[in-house]
Amino acid sequence: MRWIIAAFVLAFTATLQADEIRGKVVSIADGDTITVLDAEKVQHKIRLEGIDAPEKGQAFGTKSKEKISEKVGEKELVVRWTKKDRYGRILGDVYLGDRHINLEMVRDGMAWHYKQYSKSKELSDAEDEARKSQKGLWVEKEPVPPWEYRKAEREKRKKAETPLKLQSLFVSGVIDRHLFMIGSPGTGKTMLAKRMATILPPLTLEESLETTRIYSALGRLNSDQSLLTTRPFRSPHHTISDAGMVGGGKTPAPGEI
Asked: Measured between alpha carbons, how far is 45 from 84 in angstroms, rounded to an integer?
C-alpha cells in the first residue's frame, strides 16, 4: 500500500512539472511582457509570472521596459510555465542561465510583486528589500500600483464614453434612425436600449394602431388593453431564428423587424 501511495504522489508531482519554452526574445511590450520565438519559429507571448510592472503612462513605465530590454532583449532564454492567463498569454518564470528575471525585476524596483496572484515568499522578500533600499519605483513616497492605475484608467474611459453614448442615442431618436450597438458584455448596451423609448416622441395614432395589431396577432396584447400608446422595448436573443427575426414560420407570425 505504501508503494502504491508513493507511486501516486510521484505521478501527481510529474503532472505539476512546468513546461519549458526555449527561444529568443524578439519583442518586448513592457516590463513584464515579452515575446519569445522558439526553434520551430513559433512566437509565444510571455507574461512574467508573479510580477506587475508599471504601465507606460506611469512613472518608471518606460524605465521598467528599458531595464528588461537590457536583461533579455534579443537573447536566448528559458521560460518555465504551467498555465495561461485569461488573455491567452503564457504565465512563466523567465531564466537567463541561472538568473531568474522575474525576481531581478522586483529586486531592482522595476516591478511589483503581484500578490493578488502570487504567494511567492521570494518575490515578497525582494519587494521588501527594494522598498527599503528605495530602488527604482520605490524612490517615490507613494507609488501607485499598476493594477490600481489600470482600474482608474478604465473608470476614466467609462466616464468619457458615457456622454458620447447618450448623445448618439439622442441623435438617433431625434432623426428617426436605427442605432446598432456593439460591445462586450456589461458595457451598457441593454441599459441604453431600454432608455431609448424614454427620449423618443410619443407614438402617433398610426404607430399605435400598427403596434397594437402586431401585438394582437402575437397574442401578447393584454385583455385590458385596447390600444398600445407606449413604445415597446424588444430584446431578441442572439440565437433567434430567421423566421423569428423577419417573420414567417410554419404558423406565420410577425417577426422582430
From this structure: 10
Helices (H), the chain: 2-15, 61-72, 101-107, 121-133, 146-174, 189-199, 205-218, 242-246
Which stretch of DSSP H or E encloses residue 19?
A: strand 19-30
User: Per-residue pLDDT tens for 188-211?
Assistant: 777 777 777 777 778 889 988 988
**Are 28 and 43 in contact, with CB atoms under 8 Å apart?**
no
The three-class DSSP label of residue 228 is coil
Greatest CA separation for the chain = 85
Q: Which residues are catalytic?
A: 47, 55, 89
Sign of the CA dihedral with 26 first, then 28, 29, and 33 last: positive
Smallest Cα–Cα separation from 104: which of 76, 71, 128? 71
Dist CA 183 CA 168 (whole Å)? 15
